[in-house]
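The record is given unchanged here:
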Amino acid sequence: MSTSIADIPDESQAQPHRVAVYVDGLNLYHGLKSRSWRRYYWLNLRRLAERLLRSDQRLVMVRYFTARFMPRFGDPDQPQRQDTYLKALETLPDLTIQYGYHLPKTGRCRRCGATWASFEEKMTDVNIAVALLRDAMRNTFDTAIVISADSDLTGPINTVLHSYPEKRVVVAFPPNRHSEQLHHQATAAFRLGRSIIASSQFPAQVIDANGFVLHKPSSWN
């Protein structure tokens, strides 16, 4: 069978470098909260992900991992605000949400013995690890960007880099968050700055697939 020059792949027309973004939702939330950046909670994660790309890269998906808040004393509306935000995220193309859960626990003051009800988030790190490894195995991305400072993700990142040496895993630390283990294990690492977060916000009103208008919670202004 004969071939012509038209049948020879043109390396100059290679496909753009594929990037997948994995967002540790509560790690990012607590990073913003620790800086008192409530005004930036209304964050468009796809816009943020796109601003992290080079010109030769293409965003293939954003995976968001979180757990739903439980009603808390002193802030009973927190679950409702989160639900509004999750519905806004659901309007974004190529973005999926995977849920862990909050486990009730009791806090205790070591000095006075007073106790209070609190919650501990579970499964997010496991869900990110499974998704990262599965997507690497399926060759879904060339580079993964992991937005988290959870050192429990060091093992999964190490596994991806050693099992698939042609791939890259970049860690983007949320504001006021850092992990030396992740920094040294990842292909590269950096911290999300205020400017990129501020410029990646949803508009004040977002319309969902049913035509319902989602309003940015007033306490986030």
In short: The helical segments are 25-34, 45-51, 78-89, 124-137, 154-163, 180-185, 194-198. The first helix runs from residue 25 to 34.
